[in-house]
Specification:
24% helix, single chain, 2 domains, alpha+beta, binds flavin-adenine dinucleotide, FAD/NAD(P)-binding domain, 10 helices, D-Amino Acid Oxidase, Chain A, domain 2, globular
């Protein structure tokens, strides 16, 4: 059996794991990134809607999203991000970062509706962005990436031992000083299957929810669409989110949009049968909301992926109370693409002891009280 030793092992090759490896690339630490599937970014991080949004109830999430946009290097901004503003219905200006948001009125079906306009939001090409971060991270000769790799066990041989011992692919033994759990919709399952933590705590932190996205045509290219008395300014901005009626759309190239009915379909990511009625439900909603306009719209092929949430819908960021060598980084729900660049920068600072900012509102400890049964 081969043996290797690492300073930090990252479990999960989605945007959180890859972006963390990117920020650690100059740390001079031995880093291992393990992904269970054949490639990086095959799940939520490669299949999401890529809307970069800064409007959150949590001030820290807004800060992370704002800082991600501001601190992306030039290559990222020019190659993978298109600034284009957003319109969100059903929200008020939050009591933080107010300079980012502006109240405006839009006309839908003759009604004037209040919306929030954010000039500096935009759209991200999620997969190319993740691949860019991975390519940059790989320039670190101290980084090893293992795909198609599963972890069979994780243990700490004794309370005084400094490192965790892991067996991967039932074959290789590795030791690691720190383990970061970035396994997205598998966040709890990953450790449930490999450690004793759950036998002691009997608590799961997260739940996974499937969400569907569909390509759609027939939106036209004008800045506003007038159909009978409807003036719907979907095309003024790069994305339009109606939180009152729970749907959104974003630009998806030549006259197309990506559209979603914001459903919360609880799911086991290993045992999920795609819901064939998802397209029908979206069509029904749209026809009801915009009977005239929806005649032109067609829904093309769609897909689903999993969003992962804690009970309070805030992320998990921080060291485990019972296992100080374990760091949790997950449950970035529907905001991981917007916030991960800056959130993982802060995680890298904490893991390398360059900062002591623990972001306690997101600590795993809070969930031990508010457990999900
Ligand atoms: C439909 C949809 C639309 C979205 N739209 C947006 C949006 O517009 N804007 C936005 O900001 N966010 C959006 N999101 C949210 C965003 O996609 C997620 O927050 C983000 O991708 C989560 O990243 P992650 O790295 O935690 O998870 P993932 O991308 O799921 O990555 C986790 C990785 O861990 C791997 N893994 C699991 N178990 C193991 C194991 N035991 N060992 C090794 N590897 C393992 C998985 O294979 C996977 O590759 C959307 C999400 C969905 C579902």
């Amino acid at each position: 059996m081969k043996e290797s030793s690492f300073d930090i092992t990252i479990l999960g090759g989605g945007i959180l794991g890859v972006s963390l490896a990117y920020h650690l690339r100059k740390s001079n630490l031995r880093i291992l990134l393990i992904e269970k599937d054949q490639n990086l970014g095959l799940h939520a991080s490669g299949k999401n809607a890529g809307m970069i949004r800064q409007l959150y109830r949590s001030e820290q999430l807004t800060e992370w999203a704002k800082n991600s946009i501001n601190y992306w290097p030039k290559e990222i901004k020019s190659n993978f991000f298109t600034q284009g503003s957003s319109l969100i219905i059903g929200r008020n200006i939050p009591n933080h970062n107010q300079e980012l948001f502006k109240e405006t009125n839009i006309k839908i079906s003759g009604r004037s509706i209040k919306a929030l306009y954010t000039k500096t939001d935009g759209l991200l090409d999620s997969s190319p962005y993740l691949n860019y971060l991975a390519t940059e991270a790989k320039k670190n000769k101290q980084l090893e990436i293992m795909t198609n790799t599963s972890v069979s066990s994780i243990s700490r041989p004794s309370l005084t031992t400094k490192e965790l011992e892991m067996t991967i692919n039932g074959q290789y033994k590795i030791t690691t000083s720190l383990l970061v759990n970035c396994t997205g919709a598998w966040l709890d399952k990953t450790l449930e299957q490999t450690t004793d933590i759950y036998k002691i705590r009997k608590i799961r932190f997260s739940k996974a929810y499937a969400r569907y996205l569909f390509r759609s045509k027939g939106w036209g290219n004008s800045n506003s669409i007038n159909s009978n008395s409807e003036e719907i300014r979907f095309n003024d901005t790069s994305f339009y989110w109606d939180e009152e009626n729970n749907w959104y759309c974003r630009d998806w190239g030549e006259g197309e949009k990506l559209i979603s009915k914001c459903e919360e379909l609880e799911a086991d990511p290993d045992d999920y049968i795609p819901n064939l009625n998802a397209q029908l439900r979206l069509s029904e909603t749209f026809c009801k909301l915009y009977p005239e306009f929806s005649k032109n719209i067609t829904l093309e092929n769609g897909w689903h992926c999993f969003r992962t949430y804690t009970k309070d819908k805030l992320p998990i960021f921080g060291f485990d109370k019972d296992e100080p060598r374990l760091f949790w980084l997950g449950c970035f729900g529907g905001f991981g693409m917007s916030t991960s660049y800056s959130a993982t920068y802060d995680a890298a600072q904490l893991l390398t002891k360059k900062s002591n900012n623990k972001f306690s509102e997101f600590s795993p400890d809070r969930l031990i009280q508010k457990s999900i049964s």
